[in-house]
Design goal:
Layout: H1 2-36, H2 40-44, H3 51-62, H4 68-80, H5 85-97, H6 100-110, H7 112-136, H8 139-149, H9 164-168, H10 171-205, H11 208-214, H12 221-238, H13 245-254, H14 259-267, H15 273-283, H16 285-312, H17 320-325, H18 333-351, E1 361-363, E2 370-372, E3 378-382, E4 385-389, H19 392-400, H20 402-405, E5 414-415, E6 422-423, E7 430-433, E8 440-443, H21 446-453, E9 463-464
Parallel strand pairs: 3-9
Antiparallel strand pairs: 1-2, 3-4, 5-6, 7-8
């Protein structure tokens, strides 16, 4: 028993040790890219099914959050605002499979061949979506979906009126970047921790014979086909998505799963069981099933085609080098890089709590993720204030008992409706009252109050009606 837990925890710790600084680097770069790369032009041009629009949807996905939950919510928000169904799916795939942090972690856990496969396989999947979406989702189905989720168009982001050089040197952009980084980490840290833990215990304790019973080995074409079909189903029940499935992919690679099977497993972070339930909530049961089967086919075929291309070019790697890399902890360069990464993360967390006058983003009061107010997954009204959420499940948690979320604590009992920061109503920086009596709003700074008073707060998307609950007892 001691060997079971000790070996599993050691493998888990070794994987975290290897990937800590790449993870911080990846999420930091992702946050800065999300903050500094203008998206307005990309969003405006996703309403037609063309090659240019598909490329723009892919680009928007690459510069977005890697979180699978955020990607699915953002894809729905884009679709509700006029993007075609095809471009929405392309965005969702690019956002979860072509982002910076995924490539960085892949490189340090599985090597450069898997990074190349990530890029090539992502392009293959986008091509498959482009070719097959009209077959899987006939036009009448797409029209029905569009009518179901149609929402008002978003307002513009004031920060994006500046040139790219002005954005890069602005304090606001760096504050936004730090909040995107913190929000992404807040969203996926449980998946990351679960992924490392599951992968560590599987690598240390599960015998190779078990994997050989599940995945065929040594049967040529049959092996490749069976592996790419079964691997995504493992992802469905693993409950691990986003970057968190990379350690588990490493465990599969160590235990003889084919190259294409591992690639299809990595791509399958969009069909984990929690996400399937989200699709059901977004689009209905029938469409959720249709979407799940379509994505499964795209991911399996994408993995198979990627392996065939790599085999033709003699680029399929061997797992031996990766096996040796987990045998010991590197206490030289990795130690210093992990210390530096920890300091950078601490600085970012401190920066993310700074005040902001940017009305284009808000903080989800449930999970802490930064939300683009031009395309929120959901909003809610409570006591005269609007709150933005990264996903409907956060809005539903808020709606269940908003008084608990807004209860007084050391950080404050109110939220600034512009930047989402907590404000102590007893000692606020700025107070505003609509009629001087009933409705009082608290702000972290004068700039947030001025933005609020201009009336340019974004219209709601998928609003959640809230009624304050009576006090307990």
């Amino acid at each position: 028993m001691n060997n079971f837990f000790g070996g599993g925890l050691r493998e888990t710790a070794a994987m975290i040790w290897m990937t800590w600084w790449p993870l911080v680097l990846g999420f930091t770069l992702s946050g800065l890219v999300q903050s500094m790369v203008p998206r307005r032009g990309l969003r405006r041009s996703l309403g037609r099914d063309s090659l240019a629009a598909a490329l723009r949807a892919s680009g928007l996905g690459i510069i977005s959050s890697s979180c699978s939950y955020a990607a699915s919510a953002m894809a729905r928000a884009l679709f509700s605002r006029g993007a075609t169904w095809r471009n929405s799916l392309i965005f969702m795939i690019a956002s979860t499979n072509l982002v910076l942090e995924l490539g960085i972690v892949l490189y340090f856990l599985l090597g450069g061949s898997f990074v190349l496969a990530q890029v090539l396989g992502g392009a293959v999947m986008i091509s498959l979506v482009t070719l097959g979406v009209s077959v899987a989702f006939p036009r009448d189905v797409q029209v029905s979906l569009a009518q179901k989720v149609s929402q008002s168009a978003p307002a513009e982001n004031a920060l994006e009126e500046k040139s790219f050089c002005q954005i890069v040197i602005s304090r606001e952009a760096w504050l936004r970047g730090s909040r995107f980084t913190r929000g992404d980490l807040t969203m996926v840290w449980r998946e990351l921790a679960l992924g490392f833990l599951v992968a560590g215990f599987l690598s240390a304790n599960l015998p190779a014979s078990w994997w050989h019973h599940l995945f065929l080995n040594g049967h040529g074409w049959l092996t490749m086909l069976e592996n790419v079909l079964i691997a995504p189903l493992v992802a469905v029940i693993a409950f691990v998505c986003s970057v968190g499935n990379i350690p588990l992919a490493a465990a599969l690679w160590l235990n003889g799963v084919s190259f294409g099977g591992v690639i299809s497993f990595i791509f399958a972070d969009l069909i984990t069981l929690p996400l399937l339930l989200i699709y059901r909530r977004f689009y209905g049961t029938a469409t959720a099933w249709r979407l799940a089967l379509f994505l499964w086919g795209v991911m399996s075929l994408g993995g198979l085609l990627t392996e065939l291309l790599f085999r033709a070019a003699h680029l399929v790697p061997k797992p031996a080098g990766f096996t040796r890399s987990l045998q010991s902890f590197d206490t030289a360069s990795t130690l210093y890089l992990n210390i530096a990464a920890s300091l950078i993360l601490l600085i970012l967390l401190v920066m993310s709590r700074g005040s902001s006058s940017d009305s284009s983003v808000a903080i989800d009061p449930i999970c802490g993720m930064q939300v683009d107010t031009a395309a929120p997954a959901a909003t809610a009204e409570y006591q005269g204030q609007r709150y933005y959420f990264c996903a409907p499940r956060c809005a539903e948690k808020f709606a269940a008992n908003p008084s608990d979320v807004m209860r007084e604590d050391t950080d404050g009992d109110a939220l600034d409706p512009i930047c989402g920061m907590r404000v102590n109503s007893r000692h606020p920086d700025v107070i505003s009252s609509s009629d001087g009596k009933s409705l009082t709003t608290y702000f972290c700074s004068r700039s947030c109050r001025e933005t609020f008073l201009t009336g340019k707060v974004q219209p709601p998307s998928q609003p959640v009606s809230l009624q304050p609950k009576p006090p307990r007892g």
